[in-house]
Structures are given as C-alpha cells and as structure tokens.
Give the backbone structure.
Amino acid sequence: MGKEKKLASEQDLISACIDNDSRAQKILFETYAPKMLGVCARYCSNMEDAKDALHEGFIKVFRLIGNFKGNSTLETWMTRLMINTSIDHFKKSIKYLHFEEHEKVHQYSDEESSYSIQIEEEEQIKTEDLYKIIEQLPEGYRLVFNLYVIEGYTHKEIAGELGISAGTSKSQLARARTMLKKLVKEQLNIG
C-alpha cells in the first residue's frame, strides 16, 4: 500500500523512474504507451515501425527523464521525444526521403494555425477517419503536415528536423492540404 501511495502523483512517478524503479517505469509505459503509439504511427510508414519507434522512444524517456524540468507537462515532453524518435526511425528505415522541390513555393505564414477543410455544412467526418485519410498522403507530405498542423512546429523547425529548406516545408504543406481536401471530398462523395 505504501508503494502504491508513493506513486500516486506524477512527480512521484517521475522521481521513481529517475531512480530506475522498474514498477514505476511499467506504470509510466502502460499509462502513456497507447497515446504515444498514436504519435509514432503518424510519422512511421507502418505499425511495426511505429511500435519500434515507440520502444526506442521509451528507452530515451527512461534514460532522459532526469532531464525533465517541468517546463511543460510530462506528456508534452514525451510526445516531443516520440516525434523526434519516430522521425529518426523513419529516416533510418528509408533509403531516400523524397520531398518535391519547386521554384514556386506556396507561401503560408507560420502563424497560420487553422487548416480547416471546407466541406458542405451537412457533411461530417470523424477524427479517426481523417487520420486514416492523412495516412494516405505521400510520406513527405504526411510528415510535414503532421509536424506543422498537428504538432505545431514552425517551417524552420521542420526544415531542421527533416534536413530540408523552410520553402520545401511550406510547399509540402500546401500540397498536402490540396491532396487532403481531394481525399476528404472523395471519402464523403462530394464533388
């Protein structure tokens, strides 16, 4: 009972993980693994790669948890680690990451945060269906779209993470949005 009580708060759980308490690590893993797997799946080509990235990510979490300063929530800190681990895993798993470069880049400001897809008012699409549609995007489009729209990275941050220019990131985002709108319309059978 005393041990269970000790792990009642998030800070106690973090402290126990810093002390390499395997029980606390298990609790942390079981608490956050489902959500973190979803994060990894957004950046990996398939579920097996996502599971590999998840496990690599948790190894980093347990190794680096002593560096957690509390400037954000634990979940936010872990999400950032999982994203970076998934991107690293993705880079290792492919021979050539293809991003389309064109001289004419669609310019969108970094402050543009809302990417609503305009569909007829009476049409609805579930979040899980939208995630499935996002998975259909080409890998470069999907990575940039997820990092920018879902995770809130700037084009400069995306460029640094993926080794591309900020212009390429903006172009990939514009193309992802266009393709996503088309795929949503097809899904909803609207023209």
Notes: The chain has two domains: 2-93, 99-191. Residues 66 and 130 are 36 Å apart (CA to CA). The first helix runs from residue 2 to 6.
